[in-house]
Amino acid sequence: MNSIEDAVRQAIAEAPARKFSESVDLAINLHNIDLSQPANRVDTEVILPNGLGKPVKIAVFAAGETALRAKSAGADRVLNLDEIKTLGEDKRAARKLAEEYKFFIAETQFMPVIGKSLGPILGKRGKMPTPLPPTQDVTPQVQRLKNMVKIRSRDRPTFHLTIGNRSMDNKQLAENVEAVITKLEQTLKDGKQNLKSVYVKTTMGPSIRVI
Questions:
Q1: How confident is the model at residue 1, as a pLDDT?
Q2: Are 208 and 10 in contact (CB under 8 A)?
Q3: CB atoms within 10 A of CB 83
Q4: Burial 4-40 (b: 16+ CB within 10 A, else e)
Q5: Which residue of 30, 33, 111, 204 shows the fewest CB atoms closer than 10 Å?
Q6: pLDDT digits (tens, 9 = 90+) for 90-122
Q7: Is residue 163 within 8 Å of residue 176, measured between CB atoms?
Q8: In this structure, how many other beta carbons lie within 10 angstroms of the beta carbon of residue 134?
Q9: Residue 7: CB partners within 8 Å, gap ≥ 6?
Q10: Cβ(99)–Cβ(164) under 8 Å?
Q11: What is the pTM of this model?
Q12: Residue pLDDT, tens place only, 10-30
């Protein structure tokens, strides 16, 4: 079996050059686990040691000092209470927001109104905001989410996630792959016994088996 870095190198080498910046993805196949039971499904997060190699858009629901800090930390959009209520009345705009931004953070004071106004739209996409307690600094949260991806199997044994960009170094990509596999082994009911296979590929390239 190829090492992770060998598999990444092969996936990149065998993928024809494209006119756009391809992502690098993992195809994960599980077995010996009953995914019809919600408790067995994978729904977790992993911090990629080398990020995704491209900007990750983050929106923050906040006011006052926290809103200012969020902007300084690199949040792509900061929304106040009035904007939350407006989005709750404009489902089309709310869906656009949910698609445009990868992650959301919200001051805890806003969570009830977000749940009421935007819960069905954000929740369906696995994008309910990370709550921010009143005494917590938003800056490290924004920076953490810039390098985070969600791992969600839903009720199917095969699922995909992006772990980087083709422009990244092979070693960086391999370290990201390893971080995901380690997290899966920690999360799955029977650890690595539930991992049937993992493949790495570029958006349009061939799939190369990692494990």
A1: 40
A2: yes
A3: 14
A4: bbebbbbbbeebeeeeeebbbbbbbebeebebeeeeb
A5: 204
A6: 999 999 999 999 999 999 999 999 999 999 999
A7: yes
A8: 8
A9: 174, 177, 200, 208, 209, 210
A10: no
A11: 0.79
A12: 999 999 988 888 999 999 999
The domains of the chain, with CATH numbers, are 4-53+147-209 (3.30.190.20), 58-145 (3.40.50.790)
* Two tokens, residue 64: 């006052």
Cα separation values, 76 from 36, 57, 59, 79, 178, Å: 37, 6, 6, 10, 29
List Cβ<8 Å contacts ≥24 apart for 99-102: 99/125, 100/57, 101/57, 101/58, 101/59, 101/76, 101/77, 101/127, 102/56, 102/57, 102/58, 102/127, 102/145
DSSP code for 2: -
Q: What stretch of H or E contains 27? A: strand 23-30
In three-state secondary structure terms, 10 is helix
End-to-end, the C-alpha distance of the chain in Å comes to 7
Q: What would the pLDDT profile of 151-189 be if each residue is shown by its tens digit?
A: 999 899 999 999 999 999 999 999 999 999 999 999 999
Using CA atoms, how far apart are residues 209 and 127, in angstroms rounded to an integer?
Answer: 30
Q: Nearest CA to 69 among 22, 125, 135?
A: 135
Starting at the earlier edge strand, list the strands of the sheet with 58-61: 77-79, 58-61, 103-107, 130-132
